[in-house]
Amino acid sequence: MISPLAYVDSKAVIGNNVTIHPFAYIDKDVVIGDNCVIYPYASVLAGTVMGKNNRVFQGAILGAEPQDFHYKGDATRLSIGDDNMIREYVIINRATTPEGETVIGNRICLLKGTRIGHDCRVDDDCILGIDCDLSGECHIHSKAILAGRVIVKERCRVGSWTLVKSGCRTGKDIPPYILAAHNPITYKGINAFILRRRGFGEATIENIALAYRQIYQSGTSLENAVLRIKEVVEPSPEIDYILSFIEDSKMGIIATYGEEK
């Protein structure tokens, strides 16, 4: 059902069984998949392509122009997957250049007031709490949780299965499987409670913990800690992911209090 009080551009492509409430705004060059719901006063702007079963709540703005001085007015893209909940006043910027793309995956929960900057990527099954803010070109890996009012600075990454506590700010990468808290942001241990609830075995959790002891409790450099992990920690997909995340880091990783990594 499309309300006659909504604005839907004639060049928008609307799927089957889509509900668009009064006073919603659907721009040209928009694709909305089947079974989506667009609530009053939400705006879906040009360049936005979304899949099916998404709910976009009041006041959200999808596909806003990037807040980037490099933006030259080109037609750029925001891609949103399936089964997402995008709550009130969320703002998602599309990419800065035609070659780029802002990407929101599947089954993601974006709570009230969250902003996702240009060219960011949020992978499947993430939760971003109230008033989180991602600067441009950030990458949130799958199943990460950012509690309320977390600020992630440009080009930073957050690893899978990581929980970042409320109010943290980071200008560095946050590795996978951990808890991060406080300001300055610090490593606070592994995210064992969530890992157990999601079916990780005790041997796997202990192996992850052993890897992070080399990084954060051995008193050595990050480079030496990586070598120690390769020597003393049993190989596994989780350990391979930790090592590749660290080795691919361009921003460095968060430290324990008073240290630099």
Automatic annotation (TrEMBL):
GO terms of biological process kind: lipid A biosynthetic process
Record-linked InterPro entries: Acetyltransf_C (IPR029098), Acetyltransf_C_sf (IPR037157), Hexapep (IPR001451), Lipid_A_LpxA (IPR010137), Trimer_LpxA-like_sf (IPR011004)
A GO MF term: acyl-[acyl-carrier-protein]-UDP-N-acetylglucosamine O-acyltransferase activity
Alphabetically ordered keywords of this record: Acyltransferase, Lipid A biosynthesis, Lipid biosynthesis, Lipid metabolism, Transferase
Domain UDP N-acetylglucosamine O-acyltransferase C-terminal positions: 173-254
A GO cellular component annotation in the UniProt record: membrane
Transmembrane region(s): none
Keyword Lipid biosynthesis: yes
PANTHER family tied to this protein: ACYL-[ACYL-CARRIER-PROTEIN]--UDP-N-ACETYLGLUCOSAMINE O-ACYLTRANSFERASE (PTHR43480), ACYL-[ACYL-CARRIER-PROTEIN]--UDP-N-ACETYLGLUCOSAMINE O-ACYLTRANSFERASE, MITOCHONDRIAL-RELATED (PTHR43480:SF1)
UniProt name for this protein: Acyl-[acyl-carrier-protein]-UDP-N-acetylglucosamine O-acyltransferase
Species of the source: Barnesiella intestinihominis YIT 11860
